[in-house]
Design a protein that fits this description.
This protein is mainly α. It has one domain. 74% of the residues lie in helices and 0% in strands. Helix 2 runs antiparallel to helix 3, helix 2 runs antiparallel to helix 6 and helix 5 runs antiparallel to helix 6. It is globular and about 50 Å long. The termini are far apart.
Length: 160
């Protein structure tokens, strides 16, 4: 017969170890990355089913990048690899994604008449808003980091 595990013991490794921690899923960054991944995947599926299949590569790349960053932030790779400034990379990804989604959504809605293209365009506009919110929040983090770095540097140089 199996003995019950003590209350403070860690769960056994398995599929649950692949899931991100609950704290990250409840955070604003986790929710934004999850929304970006889901929206990008939905848009990708809509473009595959539409006449505007030539636009399917942008949502696929954005889905993969958002998924990578989701698991990188969830597993705290950003704290382990200090050589890459993660907020800057995330900011650039969000800015380019918002611009690209806005452009292809306008083209999909105005040029193609099938329902899947229209749905992809509508979801693309929603994704544009989500990516814009994410790059606004990331931009504020970048500005505070740069202000901290610029205010510390001149004083250190003057005293030397």
């Amino acid at each position: 017969m199996e003995e019950p595990e003590p209350a403070g013991a860690a769960p056994p490794p398995g599929l649950r170890s692949l899931l991100p921690p609950r704290e990250f899923l409840c955070s604003r960054k986790g929710q934004l990355l999850l929304a970006e991944s889901v929206l990008s995947f939905i848009i990708f599926i809509c473009y595959i089913a539409s006449l505007a299949a030539s636009f399917m590569m942008a949502p696929l790349l954005e889905f993969l990048l958002a998924l990578f960053l989701f698991f990188a932030y969830a597993s705290k790779l950003n704290e382990k690899f200090k050589g890459l400034y993660w907020p800057l990379a995330d900011f650039l990804r969000c800015v380019t994604a918002a611009i690209i989604y806005f452009a292809i959504s306008i083209a999909a809605v105005s040029k193609y008449g099938d329902g899947a293209s229209k749905a992809a365009g509508v979801f693309g506009f929603i994704a544009t808003i989500v990516f814009a919110i994410d790059f606004y929040i990331t931009f504020n983090d970048l500005v505070t980091f740069l202000k901290q770095g610029s205010s510390d540097s001149p004083e250190g140089r003057k005293s030397e």
